[in-house]
Specification:
Length: 439
């Protein structure tokens, strides 16, 4: 305490000597200082003052210093943002931040600064960082929205014209350009006549569909198509919006929900060749073998990859698909799949919400998306419902048929007086995927 007081007193003495030059060095005359310009000694920063100094032109040993006030921060009007939060930076470049706060997320985007958070950390389908949900439930848990698939047709000219421009030239058999051929059958051969292209616009995804020949109801034929009846014509581009898939919760237990699409999402054959009986690994594979079917391959390689992104895939469980229960003939081995069709037995399970008989019933009647209609599924006069495949092979026609649900909700197959099953090469049947979701 004493020491510091002493130093302070000495400082004042030195200062006084400089200002009042009358008490200058011995033998020198007192003069009025002739001060030069103030010059910066240390620059002020945002938070700390600096100093300036001036020197006497008559005697450079005479100097004077004065403090310069701190600049103060100059906060940017715009938000700066990073993974942790948003803030204003100082435009003086001091590196300080102001108004720093964690993002206020709503559906993965900050409502304050607009930051879009992409590296979600999902647990039980909810991101622990922003609260974005991989799936949403409604109807007291009877419906789940999860994954995306092209569904409703986009008819607004303002949108379709921009999409058409982005899609570029139309595909031809010789040059598909940016488009991808569906690889559908035509007259028994895989032929390039129907294409699609996925385009992003304003953070929404769209699928364009274009075909130069009609997609026929039998893989082997070049006639009988329902695309025109459904309102979809050759040589025209149609656009469909990717929308959340609505799933019906059939069962929910032990943290796992068994789901089926609540609408027909697509259409196609079960297997392309009803005349082909193959020998594989010493066994006989009939056209209605589910394990070796086109429809199973399509669900796994095409539907699954289109409908779910990386995070969504992580909460879809691999199911042991029972291909034998209730199957009298042509049963295939059980399969381990992430996506599958329901079986005839499952489609009559009362605990899933179906009636226990095969009879026509509303519990099994399904409508179809615009996209599925554009794929050519068969309409019924005066009905808004369509038929859809089950995975169960049927025994009546020598391995050429499989079960389906009719547009009236009847489980068809096995019982001749109910009309039997469907030839597996029938293309104009709906596809209704099923999955098990880890909740
Ligand atoms: Zn002087
Ligand atoms: Zn600053
Ligand atoms: Zn923010
Ligand atoms: Zn997140």
């Amino acid at each position: 305490m004493k020491k510091s007081k002493l130093f302070a007193a000495a400082g004042i003495a030195v200062c006084a000597a400089l200002v009042f030059a009358a008490c200058g060095p011995k033998g020198e005359e007192a003069h009025t200082h002739d001060w030069g310009e103030w010059k910066e000694v240390s620059a002020p920063t945002c938070e700390q003052g600096g100093t300036e100094k001036r020197t006497c032109r008559s005697d450079p040993s005479h100097t004077e210093t004065r403090p310069v006030g701190a600049l103060g921060h100059k906060w940017s009007a715009e938000w700066s943002k990073d993974e942790k939060g948003h803030y204003h930076v100082c435009e003086n470049g001091c590196g300080k931040h102001e108004g720093e706060a964690a993002h206020a997320y709503k559906e993965g985007a900050c409502t304050v600064c607009g930051y879009i958070h992409l590296s979600h950390q999902y647990e039980a389908g909810v991101c622990g960082v922003c609260g974005k949900r991989l799936y949403t439930e409604s109807g007291e848990g009877s419906l789940i929205y999860f994954g995306e698939y092209p569904q409703s047709e986009v008819k607004e000219e303002a949108v379709t014209s921009v999409l058409a421009e982005k899609a570029g030239d139309l595909p031809t058999e010789e040059n598909a350009g940016n488009w991808t051929s569906y690889g559908y059958y035509y007259g028994g051969e895989v032929t390039d006549y129907m294409w699609y292209i996925d385009v992003e616009l304003d953070e929404s995804r769209y699928r364009g569909v274009y075909f130069t020949e009609e997609r026929n109801c039998k893989t082997s034929s070049t006639f009988l198509s329902y695309q025109g009846d459904n309102g979809y014509l050759t040589e025209t581009v149609y656009w469909f919006r990717f929308e959340p898939i609505e799933w019906r919760v059939l069962e929910n237990k032990d943290g796992t929900a068994l789901l089926m699409a609540n609408i027909i999402l697509d259409g196609g054959q079960y297997y392309h060749d009803i005349g082909e009986i193959r020998t594989q690994d010493g066994g006989t594979v009939y056209p209605n073998n589910y394990k070796e079917s086109d429809i199973r391959k399509w669900l796994i390689e095409n539907f699954y990859e289109t409908a779910f992104d990386g995070a969504a895939k992580q909460i879809i469980e691999t199911s042991t698909v029972d291909n034998r229960t209730g199957v009298q003939d042509y049963a295939s081995e059980d399969t381990q799949d992430k996506v599958f069709l329901l079986s005839a037995v499952e489609a009559e399970n009362e605990s899933y919400g179906f009636v226990t008989s095969a009879s026509a019933n509303a519990s099994r009647q399904l409508k179809a998306t615009d996209y599925a209609k554009a794929q050519g599924i068969q309409p019924t006069k005066d009905s808004e419902y369509f038929s859809w495949w089950l995975r169960t092979p049927e025994k009546q026609a020598g391995g050429k048929t499989a079960f389906k649900v009719s547009e009236t909700g009847m489980v068809r197959g096995g019982v001749w007086w109910m009309g039997g099953g469907e030839y597996v090469n029938y293309v104009c049947n709906g596809i209704v995927p099923a999955i098990r979701l880890h909740l």
